[in-house]
Design goal:
24% helix; Class_I_gatase-like; 8 helices; Rossmann fold; serine-type peptidase activity; alpha/beta; serine protease
Length: 303
């Protein structure tokens, strides 16, 4: 696994919009915070894009991302927000120059597809808070975690205990993200092998029956059978039908993982809420779930 260089004061980073449109005013708090870290922030053309719900048409967003990937001066690229549209771009992107000068790619939600695509190519990335959420109440810990990860500072995480937790310990590379996107990329060049990995998942604004259907799909594909461990994050603003599904999101996940033996941590702070701690996709990590809660720490890479 290849890890881009950690950031230093004076480095250049870029913000672009891979999916839904956003205004420059919405990311001003992020620009101010990133600048306060000593970074020079480059603004992508897609931030001025407006094509229906997208941040410009596909051609604009592809060109913007490609330009940033090709620029050896940039040390990180942060997606301004999620939404929908990243999967429309991936097969048109050339990673040749990126591979010569790797840089951190940061995002979550719809950006899950790109993070998994990079994992398949052997490059680490960051599942973390995006500029659209900077400055919101409760985002301080998420922003600080992103700062520590980008600058290569030591960090570990702890989550309170949960009645659904399955106790145990496991080590493996972190991979995951939004459940809808993990389903969307199955069978595509962006799909990844989950065996021996610590999978983390989160979701927002989905009907409970559809969450169940996606878990069935992951299970039938064998994605859940050979995990080292599972981290279940935020299930935000989940919806139900007039005839209730009769299970919560966490109950659905517990049901579909009941026959496995790996440790499971529920209610970990990752996903579509401001307390969204930065996770390094592709990094070796150790997950410990016991009576006192859940603990996640990064491990040294094997030489």
């Amino acid at each position: 696994m290849i890890f881009p260089p950690t950031l230093q004061p004076g480095d250049k980073i870029a913000i672009c919009a891979l999916a839904r449109k956003i205004t420059l005013a919405e990311i001003q708090p992020a620009i101010q915070i990133l600048t306060s870290w000593g970074l020079e922030v480059v603004i992508g053309k897609s931030l001025a894009g407006d094509f229906h719900q997208f941040a410009g048409n596909d051609e604009l967003r592809i060109s913007d991302l490609q330009t940033m990937l090709d620029n050896p001066e940039l040390k990180a690229i942060i997606s301004a927000r999620g939404g929908y549209g990243t999967t429309r771009l991936l097969d048109q992107i050339d990673f040749t120059l990126f591979e010569q000068h790797p840089k951190w790619i940061v995002g979550f939600s719809d950006i899950t597809a790109l993070l998994c695509h990079l994992f398949g190519k052997g490059y680490a990335s960051i599942h973390g808070i995006m500029p659209s959420l900077f400055g919101r109440a409760g985002s301080e810990a998420a922003i600080e975690s992103l700062h520590r990860v980008l600058f290569g500072e030591p960090i570990s995480y702890q989550a309170p205990g949960h009645t659904f937790n399955r106790l145990g310990e496991a080590s493996g590379r972190l991979i995951g993200g939004n459940i809808s996107l993990l389903n969307t990329i199955i069978g595509t060049p962006s799909d990844v092998d989950y065996a021996g990995k610590i999978l983390f998942v989160e979701e927002i604004d989905e009907y409970l029956y559809n969450l169940d259907r996606m878990l069935v799909q992951l299970k039938r594909c064998g994605k859940l059978a050979n995990l080292a461990g599972l981290i279940v994050g935020h299930m935000t603003d989940m919806r139900d039908n007039p005839i209730p599904f009769a299970k919560t999101a966490y109950e659905i996940i517990r049901e579909h993982t009941a026959n496995y033996t790996y440790p499971i941590c529920f209610d970990f702070p990752t996903g579509h809420e401001t307390h969204n701690l930065a996770l390094i996709c592709g990094k070796q990590a150790h997950l410990k779930v016991n009576e006192n809660g859940s603990f996640l720490e990064y491990l040294p890479e094997e030489l």
